[in-house]
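Supplementary Methods. Inverse-folding protocol.

Structures were first reduced to a discrete structure-token string of length 260. This string, shown here, constituted the complete conditioning input.
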């Protein structure tokens, strides 16, 4: 694995393998990302632990870097870049409704520094640090050459001063993602939490960038773009809403445990 791959923000990963993200022409239109508003029963209630807490959300990829890709008959029909942004916007809405402050690294399809992945990732980390956030949630989707691989996993870094917090957050988010996906009618495979040290660390959460992140964080990989079954479910707005709720409830559980 070369140093550039070490620097990528976990676009695609599993069992010690990293697949380089495909670059798809910008002319490909993303699928419709119709919002699925929460029902009255699902509306977040402002929690005491939300007061004064800022969550930095990083939707992975952007611009010409589309991340992992699902292809239907050789044509790209779902891009990680688009799905990550859609999920992040849903998560931001839930957090704000519950009383959290939220900042996002990007709010449209563009990258922070298009065409230069290293500079783009450094800009995302710098933005997270400048926000003085309490948590970093990096929203991605997975991909492998082996199309049969599917399921849900969350990555954390064990090589940081707050590694215990990273692991707790990863555990809470993983449990909540699996629970919410299954509640939405999709029996995802629970692949567990994973320490990114086995991959040489990822830039958004790892220690090797010049000025690394200053707060606990995780990289979520709720489904595999390269698996037909996972990708078909990801096209459903209610599944993306369930994934966002999984992140949200994981954050709530993390802060609830911290205050107990």
């Amino acid at each position: 694995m070369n140093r550039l791959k070490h620097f990528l923000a976990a676009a695609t990963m599993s069992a010690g393998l990293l697949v380089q993200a495909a670059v798809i022409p910008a002319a490909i239109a993303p699928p419709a990302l119709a919002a699925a508003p929460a029902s009255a029963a699902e509306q977040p209630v402002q929690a005491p632990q939300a007061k004064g807490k800022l969550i930095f959300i990083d939707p992975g990829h952007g611009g010409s870097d589309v991340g992992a890709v699902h292809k239907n008959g050789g044509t790209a029909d779902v891009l990680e870049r688009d799905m990550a942004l859609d999920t992040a916007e849903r998560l931001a809405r839930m957090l704000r409704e519950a009383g959290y402050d939220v900042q996002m690294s990007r709010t449209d399809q563009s990258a922070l520094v298009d065409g230069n992945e290293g500079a783009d990732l450094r800009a995302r980390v710098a933005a997270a640090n400048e926000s003085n956030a309490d948590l970093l949630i990096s929203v991605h989707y997975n991909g492998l050459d082996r199309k049969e691989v599917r399921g849900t996993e969350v990555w954390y870094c064990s090589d940081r001063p707050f590694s215990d917090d990273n692991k707790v957050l990863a555990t809470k988010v993983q449990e909540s993602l699996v629970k919410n996906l299954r509640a939405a009618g999709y029996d995802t495979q629970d692949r567990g939490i994973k320490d990114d040290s086995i991959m040489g660390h990822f830039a958004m959460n790892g220690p090797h960038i010049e000025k690394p992140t200053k707060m606990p964080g995780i990289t979520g990989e709720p489904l595999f773009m390269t698996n037909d079954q996972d990708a078909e479910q990801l096209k459903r707005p209610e599944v993306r809403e369930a994934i966002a709720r999984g992140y949200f409830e994981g954050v709530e559980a993390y802060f609830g445990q911290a205050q107990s």
